[in-house]
Amino acid sequence: MLKYILKRILMVIPVLLGVTIIIFFITRVLASDPAPVVLGEHATAEAMAAWRADYGLDDPIWMQYVNFLVSAIQGDLGTSYYTHTPVASELAARFPATAELALCAIIVASICGIALGVLAAVKKNKLADNASMVLALIGVSMPVFWSGILLILLFSATLHILPSSGRVTPLLQPTGGTGFFIFDTIAKGDFEALGDVLVHLVLPTVTLSLYSMAIITRMTRSSMLETLNADYIRTARAKGLAKRSVNVKHALRNAMLPVSTVIGLQLGSLLGGALLTETVFAWPGIGKFAVDCVLKSDFPVVQGVVLLVAVIFVFMNLLVDIIYAWLDPRIKYGAKEEG
């Protein structure tokens, strides 16, 4: 196990190095000159030349990349062209919003997806199975921005029961703390603000969880069907065990291995920032921040966001593999054992 973990950690290095090369050359070589965008169309040539010199954009491209890589290894992702603050600080201020939304979405997706998948497997080829698969098909097929707009039209514009944007009402926003509003409001005992935070979370959480819920439902159903046909399940039934006990204690426990992998990977992608969901609901996370910075040609921020997403996704992949091996000791990694 230790040898496998060390091997996977070493494999992370070339992956992240490749990500830095791709995103750097896309933003510095293929993209247009950011100076006119940042300074405005009326800026003089001398002002733009001085601005490029300040940010090192007039250095050879290979030197720019080396400087970027060395600084990134030290935790310095550069400075925003607009706010003139470190990119790491900008991301740290917005990541709690993305993480809070992602965690809520994966919890909803996991609970609903596993429940629907088990129901579909137990009631194979019946109404419950067909209904669950239709819901999963809708979740996979419907674009996130479209489902988000539909939910806003229904619950905000028509029924007026849920807010359409933001994390919290400005007057109730908690100050200081961790940036995770649910935790901060509970820690301070401000339950009015907690209720407001939860209400603002409903629509973006449901929207973001639909796709993941559909994937988890399909995987749970497939894994449960395979497990229910296993010999030990037939033995348990022959011994007279209750149907619920067989389905939950025996079948579901063993069917959760591939499902846990899917949940981990889905969480990794959600933590990377839900660009469309955050944009539709004006959610102040790193996804919406990345979109705004792309439109403004704030390339240091774009590079920082992509690198952060890559680190999160690679780490989640590694964590899922380790958990998978821990849950199932039969899994062997590396060279095959002789004999």
**Rough shape?**
globular
Number of strand segments = 0
- CATH-derived architecture of the largest domain: Orthogonal Bundle
Element order: H for helix, E for strand: HHHHHHHHHHHHHH
CATH superfamily of the largest domain: MetI-like
Number of domains: 2
What is the helix fraction of residues, given as a range? over 70%
Distance between the termini: 20 Å
- The percent range for strand residues is under 5%
Judged by helices, strands and strand pairing, the structural class is mainly alpha
InterPro entries: BPD_transp_1_N, MetI-like, MetI-like_sf
Domain ABC transmembrane type-1: 95-324
Transmembrane segments: 9-31, 99-122, 134-162, 197-216, 255-276, 305-327
Organism: Ellagibacter isourolithinifaciens
Structural features, described:
- This is ABC transporter permease.
- Keywords: Cell membrane, Membrane, Transmembrane, Transmembrane helix, Transport.
- The chain crosses the membrane at residues 9-31, 99-122, 134-162, 197-216, 255-276, 305-327.
- It is a multi-pass membrane protein.
- This protein is mainly alpha-helical and 339 residues long.
- Helix content is 74%, strand content 0%.
- It has helices at 2-30, 34-39, 45-54, 61-73, 87-122, 127-141, 144-158, 181-188, 191-228, 231-238, 243-271, 275-280, 286-295, 299-327.
- Helix 6 (127-141) packs across helix 9 and helix 8 packs across helix 9 (191-228).
- The relative contact order is 0.14.
